[in-house]
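Cytosine permease: structure tokens wanted.
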Amino acid sequence: MTTEVAASSDVTAADAPESGSSEYENEPVPQHARRSLISVGAVWLGFPMILTCAVFGGLVVYSLGFWRGMLAIALGNAVLTGYVGALSYLAGKTGKNFALIAIGTFGTLGYRVVSGFLATVVIGWFAFQTGLTRSVLASSAGWDARWTALAAGIGYVTVTLLGIRALSVIGLVAAPLYLLLGAVAIALALRNSTLAGALGYGGGAGGAAMSMGAAVTLVVACFIDSGTMTADFTRWSRSGRQGFWASFAAFPLGNAIAMVIGGLIVALGAAPSPGTDGGNFLGALIGAGGWLVPVSIAFVFVNLGSVCTHCLYNGAVGWSQLTGQKMRLLAVLLGSVGVLLAVLGVWSQFEQWLTLLGVVVPPIGTVLILDQLVLPRFGFTTGDAAIRWESFGAWAAGAASALAAHLWAPQFSDALVGMVTAALVYVAIRHARRGVSA
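Answer:
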């Protein structure tokens, strides 16, 4: 299927704003405005290389032990690499953001449900990361939680207003800073432990340990929302192939590195509360004193600011396309809601949030990939429609099966169950309709 959404007007290089301020919210990014592989890759590189992923990587290793934890991290990142990579290829090929791509699969009216849902969900993730900023600095540095969340949130909104270029810059700063301080934290931990001891770590969760399937879902759910909306970033790529490689900077590269560092911190015994805070290594850095204290505090704002600005950009681009308003206006409005939630303490509900993401979101991208990348190669084509009911049916079936797995078969990965079910149902419906039309 090659349904295209025409731009409101042809844009030439001469028409493009010299300031580069246009975010092309409501049309495909024209070729003259596309960015280099390094620039788009930088947007994705710093996004998952964050303290949050160290927390989750540590939780996985605490539950499964070092080697089984590494396997879960590898499997989850393999899923994200294929999933986000395919959607990024589609984005680079067409220049469309997520909302415009969703029109072809869910319909000219139906896409509003999917795009509105994800553009709202990702603001929740912005709120969680802003809340984590408050939580980390309150526990590690003794800062006032609410004022910290408010100040951080305002700063993150301000950076988002600068657009895609600012996301590239913050990614280029956040990634090396994470690598530097992660290495310092590991070096500090090795003073009281050994690498051999970490490799032999068997886990500490006991009867409360998560299953391998649940661990894989945790890895996938950590970035499945923005991963599904990857087109908002990778639409700036010059081709489909460059879109794929730009997302590769995040999955598996940046995300895996961040999680492995968190897992090592737990395995080395350097995490004070591995059952709740996973591989959060900020306390160890601040505890070391000296120059690490101000650098660590700056690190929190840059590092978590990276994911917050990306998520807010996702939400603002999505809602700007739905409402016809400018991205920057929506960033201010949605950011204000996210900051309020962070001030109210939304971070404490992150486990339930990840469950929702792992159950509901993966089938959406699965249907998009099949509809626009896979099935057309086998001669399956469709026309325009207001609502593509087969796409919604496959999404619903995938989400229902993922929820069933979460409730009654926790040994399986909710995310994978949902993706496989959605794929099977969608292919079956399309095949049946093809037979009827023939």
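Confidence is low (pLDDT under 50) at residues 1-20. The radius of gyration is 21 Å.

Cheers.
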